[in-house]
Amino acid sequence: MRQLALAILVSAVTAAVYGPIALLWWRRARVRGQMLRLVAAVEPEPYHMALLRQEATEAAAAELVLGGYLRIDEEGAAFLTGQGRDPARAPAHPMPAALLEAVRRHDPEPVSIGWIDWCDDGYLEQRGAYRSERDALLPELPRMPDRAGNQFLACCSCVGIVLVMFFWVLAGALLVTGRPQGLREWACAVVAGLGLSALLLAEKAGRVVRERTECGDPLGDLVRSAPHPAFAALDEEQRMLVLRSIGDRHTWRGADTVVHEEADEEDDEDDEWLDDKVWWEDAYEYRATDEDEPEAKGPSSG
């Protein structure tokens, strides 16, 4: 009789423990399949993918170099070519067109692509508008169900684990101390023992379900799948020059350099004015000292 009761109770508790695990597996598998289908339907646009990788400016510069609009010297400074100065000619895509427009604003001063990428307000505004337009076309991916952010479910899980451990110890003690009689009781004891063994593996089963239904970042994998065609078409020397220019954010500042030079000249004039002021103050103090010395010596000589 004891073995039959244990078999029924252990089977019920095992079903109660593995039921949520099975439900979690079904939900995660469904969400994973839906997510993969949505990402598979995305038509990747090279510049948008490069923008999501933070490489859109490098790709635009590579296209301008390949198209003959731009040349970059050994120090990373970008200059317009004759074709680049022609206002009637421009790339068809808005990203390289925006970069070419930014370089034209700084012409004839040398400018680095990195300076434009960080400090040119017009280029940053056009790039942000393009990204907003393209991001709106991406599908909204469903979230993978996870109880990590739900405090109530986490507390219930902790309480459930404690109760299951208490039940496991109690049922195990009753199963070991009992002596089955006959085939029926032995069969019930085996069922109870298998149920207790399954309860020991419940935590591992939940972990395996999460691992096998995890899909990672399919959209990120798509974004990182291939470099931009224009950047991949550069030879080794051109690629090195483009990367050197994109990495320089301070040396070549285009037309903005003139503003800074004027500011430096004003600072120099201020320094000269301060030097003159200090010189006149020193001269005044020296003159006053000379006038005080005879007065100080007069009474002592008399």
Walk me through this protein's architecture.
The protein has 302 residues and is mainly α. The chain is 74% helix and 2% strand. It is built from 14 helices and two strands. It has helices spanning 2-40, 46-52, 56-66, 82-85, 94-106, 113-119, 121-135, 151-177, 182-200, 202-213, 218-223, 229-233, 236-247, 256-301, and strands at 70-72, 78-80. The chain has a two-stranded antiparallel ribbon. A hairpin with a 5-residue loop joins strand 1 and strand 2. Helix 3 crosses helix 5 (94-106), helix 5 packs antiparallel against helix 7 (121-135) and helix 6 runs parallel beside helix 13. The longest helix has 46 residues, at 256-301. The protein starts with a helix and ends with a helix. The model is unreliable at 258-266, 277-291 and 293-302 (pLDDT under 50).
